[in-house]
Amino acid sequence: MTTTLDLLRHGEPVGGRKYRGQIDDPLSEKGWAQMHAAVGDTAPWTRIVSSPLQRCRAFAEILADRHGLLLTLDERLAEVGFGVWEGRSAAEIEQDAPGAVARFKHDPVNARPEGAEPLAEFHGRVAAALDAILAQHPDEHVLLVGHAGVIRMAFAWALHVPLAHAYRIEVANAGLTRLRFDGDRASLVFHGGSLASR
Prior knowledge:
Elements: E1 2-9, H1 29-39, E2 47-50, H2 54-67, E3 70-73, H3 90-96, H4 100-106, H5 119-136, E4 141-146, H6 148-159, E5 176-182, E6 185-189
Parallel strand pairs: 1-4, 2-3, 2-4
Antiparallel strand pairs: 1-5, 5-6
């Protein structure tokens, strides 16, 4: 029995690149175009699961409606809380606290912004959501629409990547990646072209 989980990050939000966290900005026009381009015209999925934040949810709702797919919103798939960095760009953070962003990327477990969600807690809630997907939808092909942090935690959970290394994983806007689960074994699957057409 094989369960396939496609992970789609949201496109660019209004306001561009920031440590947005749980601020609920919508997609920009560019972000919408990125997401449409990522999935193309086909929809091989049996269902969609999405973060409730509108930069994920709005596209998930349109995609589900267009293809007659079931959609579930899961609060556990919201982006990590970034505390005092929420809504700020790396340049703005650096201006106030030189070196803080580099320290965070080097040690995301211990060098977190003030008030940020602990990485282990974030990993735990994402892992719980993913465990539920696998338990409730075995042998299905599920699309998860989420955030860069959620996708990093999915890799950490499925492939046993240490949390200290999680921010070495780059996740592009509207990036689409596939995890395949054969029993207890997880595999990261790379394809040329759009995953949605495979």
